[in-house]
Specification:
Radius of gyration: 52 Å
Distance between the termini: 136 Å
Structural class: mainly alpha
Number of helices: 13
Strand order of the largest sheet: 1-2
Number of strands: 6
Helix content: over 70%
Shape: rod-shaped
């Protein structure tokens, strides 16, 4: 205590009573906060954890701050008790009592030993007069401010660590459990490390999650993003960047495995369909080869494209796909089936185009035959079927179209000449025979 008298005017009895009531309320609030901090789950976890990194450094500082907090609180309690004792000596305090109370309540009347002040420096808490002194003196108001500062920094440390521990390890454990289920499912369909990219991804995700959990447990503060502009204890959120990335990667792997599972479920049906498509392509090509021989025998002076053989490469790949299915190598079967399905459809389309190209001359001959017969029927409807000129033209065209080999160019010209002759007769006016019915003009 000082010996130069009380700071400022001596307090009267009412001022003393009001100050004691306020300090008593502050004492009760501080005690409640300290006990809550002492019982905080985060603090207990910090005390029992093997910490590393920034969390280890900050917890060492926070522990020193909490120890200093109790030291300050004990000194505050003693000072408040002493002031209450003086006030309770008599109902009407004397001038000497009021002077002493003014010194206690307003002056630097609380002395903390130098060892405690040294602890304050360790705790990175600002001291009023610096470290290295045998003792430090504080006013009750200053001491309350100091305790509030130490409490806020300690609580922030405890709340932050507890928030990370409450959020991340549980989520990591859930994701790890999902990872294990996915690994078992992947193994059942042949998705393994070194054999399939998804298997390698699962291995990497496993190592990453294991390492992440260890880091979160030992150094939770390394995974905290403080909210900008926030000074409240625990203001911020856990940093889930790594967790979110691995969760997305696992979801991608699950989709890949689902695709493989789908292959396993309908592999036989898809293989049967592939065999059918390739068989149809083979039959179409065989038909095209037969048709080519027929065209070469029946059609003259025309180019007939060569027909390729059956797709042996696709048949080999189909056999490989069936082998994959027998040995449950679904991860290899999946991409092979997708490739084969596209190639088989392309092969069938190519075979159909080849047949169309080969039989084109026969189609032209058939069209010419149909046109010739259509005009003959039209001529007959108009009573000109017995016209010698038309009969001659028709017989010439018919011989060309029904002979082998057929020259399509010459036959086409013969059909055109017959059409022109028929058209001329159909449009020309006709003279009726004597005694016969009136002749009608030919209809076109």
């Amino acid at each position: 205590m000082g010996v130069t008298g009380p700071p400022g005017p001596v307090m009267d009895r009412d001022e003393v009573d009001r100050a004691l009531a306020r300090l008593g309320a502050e004492h009760e609030a501080i005690e409640t906060s300290l006990l809550a901090l002492q019982d905080h789950a985060g603090r207990r976890l910090l005390e029992g954890a093997e910490l590393t990194g920034v969390t280890k450094e900050r917890w060492a500082s926070a522990e020193a701050s909490i120890t200093l907090l109790w030291t300050y609180f004990d000194a505050y309690t003693d000072a408040l008790r002493g002031a209450r004792d003086i006030r309770s000596r008599r109902r009407w305090s004397s001038r000497e009592d009021l002077t002493e109370l003014t010194e206690l309540l307003r002056g630097e009347s609380v002395t903390v030993a130098g060892s405690a002040a040294g602890t304050a420096a360790t705790a990175n808490a600002p001291t009023l007069h610096g470290a290295g002194r045998l003792s430090h003196s504080f006013s009750l108001t200053t001491l309350v401010d100091r305790m509030n500062e130490l409490y806020a920094s300690s609580l922030d440390m405890v709340v932050t660590a507890d928030a990370v521990w409450s959020a991340l390890p549980a989520r990591i454990d859930l994701l790890a459990a999902e990872l294990q289920r996915t690994r078992r499912l992947a193994h059942s369909v042949g998705v393994r490390p070194g054999e399939h990219p998804a298997g390698d991804d699962l291995e990497r995700i496993t190592h990453t999650l294991t390492s992440l959990r260890e880091q979160v447990v030992s150094d939770p503060l390394a995974f905290w993003v403080r909210a900008q502009g926030s000074s409240a204890p625990g203001g911020g959120r856990p940093d889930t960047t790594v967790y979110d990335r691995e969760a997305r990667a696992l979801e991608d792997v699950r989709r890949e495995i689902d695709a493989v599972l789908t292959v396993r479920q309908d592999a036989e049906q898809r293989l049967v369909k592939l065999r059918d498509i390739l068989s149809r392509a083979d039959r179409t090509l065989a038909e095209a080869r037969t048709a080519r021989g027929e065209v070469l025998a029946k059609i003259a002076a025309t180019e007939v494209p060569v027909v390729s053989g059956p797709p042996t490469v696709l048949q080999e790949q189909l056999a490989t796909a069936a082998e994959y299915r027998r040995h449950a190598q679904w991860h290899r079967l999946s991409p092979l089936l997708e490739s084969l399905e596209q190639k088989a459809e392309d092969e069938l389309l190519r075979a159909r185009e080849s047949l169309t190209a080969v039989t084109q001359p026969l189609a032209v001959r058939a069209e010419l035959r149909g046109r010739l017969d259509a005009y003959k029927a039209k001529v007959a409807r108009h009573g000109l079927a017995e016209d010698p000129f038309l009969i001659e033209r028709y017989d010439a065209a018919r011989r060309m179209l029904w002979s082998a080999p057929c020259d399509l160019r010459v036959a086409g010209q013969a059909v055109l000449r017959y059409q022109q002759a028929a058209a001329e007769l159909l449009t020309a006016p006709r003279v009726p025979e004597q005694g016969g019915p009136q002749d009608r003009r030919g209809e076109q």
